[in-house]
Amino acid sequence: MDFIVHLKSVELFKNIGKYLHMITKIEELLAGKGWETRKRILNEISSRPMTAYELAKKLNLNYSTVKYHLELLERTGLVTHEKDRGNRYLYQQSRNARLLYQLE
């Protein structure tokens, strides 16, 4: 048992820099001017995956604005995307985003 706990501690220590970097990025994301827009996007994709075009129409925003915010959200690990059969990118909340909402 002690060996397993030690291995997990070593693994956590190896990844601590990555986690601290992610926390810093999330703090920047939350403090930035565009947080209200990003929050609206996260709310929309909480129920189902959507394309950037669908989000732009639904939120009455410019497509390039939505793409910009989606890229920021994806870089910070709050959004993921998949290609559908029609080669469209479908964006959805990541597990990290759901955890963030639980902390608010």
Automatic annotation (TrEMBL):
GO MF term list: DNA-binding transcription factor activity
Coiled coil: none
Any Pfam family the entry gives: HTH_5
Xref: Gene3D superfamilies: Winged helix-like DNA-binding domain superfamily/Winged helix DNA-binding domain
Domain HTH arsR-type residue range list: 20-104
Entries under InterPro entries matching the protein: ArsR-like_HTH, HTH_ArsR_DNA-bd_dom, WH-like_DNA-bd_sf, WH_DNA-bd_sf
Name of the protein in its database record: Transcriptional regulator
Organism from which the protein derives: Candidatus Aramenus sulfurataquae
